[in-house]
Design goal:
The protein is mostly helical and about 200 residues long. It has helices at about 10-20, 25-45, 50-75, 80-105, 110-135, 145-160, 165-195. It has one domain (about 10-195): CDP-alcohol phosphotransferase transmembrane (TM) domain (Four Helix Bundle (Hemerythrin (Met), subunit A)). The chain is about 80% helix and about 0% strand. It is globular and about 55 Å long.
Length: about 200
């Protein structure tokens, strides 16, 4: 009897993960593939090939959503693999945004360049606040712009760059990432105060 076809994104992800588990791939190989695709995306964006670069970035980012799940399901995960995954996630976003900033700089758009810098720093801070919170024993997944949301915004901006949406996407990305940092700081403050209360 044939299996029912997947209909939702979660079902497709489960099918892909199952196929990966049956393969000889390792989580680190998937992480490095995603990283390589994002570097390619950065080069393409730098060369003004926004559409193809956006697709490469989106596919590379999908690899990054699969590697953690694959590591858990397959039992092939290692502490170094988790470290490598988190590190590459931070670099990938930065590589593509750096290429975007270079193009804004060549166009003489200093405000947009500054917005990219804010987006990069705020995106790093979103991850950093979670890491520091968890080091203090506080779960911190709150906020409106986690990595998935940021990837969707940046991918959409790149793919629709011909409609002049890359600059608005950067402003939205920077703004939402800053809000998320604030939300996480407020959340951790509240949790620690609650823990200290008699």
């Amino acid at each position: 009897m044939a299996r029912p076809r997947p209909t939702t994104a979660r079902e497709y992800q489960a099918v892909v993960t199952h196929r990966l588990v049956e393969s000889r791939l390792t989580p680190n190989a998937i992480s490095l593939t995603g990283f390589a695709l994002c570097v390619v995306a950065g080069v393409l964006v730098w060369q003004d090939h926004y559409l193809v670069g956006g697709i490469a970035f989106a596919v590379g980012s999908i690899c990054d959503t699969l590697d953690g799940r694959f590591a858990r399901v397959s039992g092939k995960g290692t502490p170094f693999g988790a470290f490598l995954d988190s590190t590459l996630d931070r670099v990938e976003e930065g590589v593509v945004l750096t290429a975007v900033a270079a193009n804004f700089s060549q166009a003489g758009d200093d405000v947009a360049v500054a917005a990219v810098v804010v987006a990069v720093v705020a995106s790093l801070m979103v991850s950093y606040t979670r890491a520091r919170a968890e080091a203090l024993g506080v779960e911190c997944k709150v906020g409106i712009a986690d990595r998935t949301v940021r990837v969707v915004i940046l991918s959409a901006g790149l793919i629709l760059a011909d409609l002049e949406l890359i600059e608005p996407a950067v402003y939205v990305l920077a703004g939402l990432a800053l809000i998320t940092v604030g939300q996480r700081i407020w959340h951790v403050r509240g949790q620690l105060k609650r823990a200290e209360a008699p």
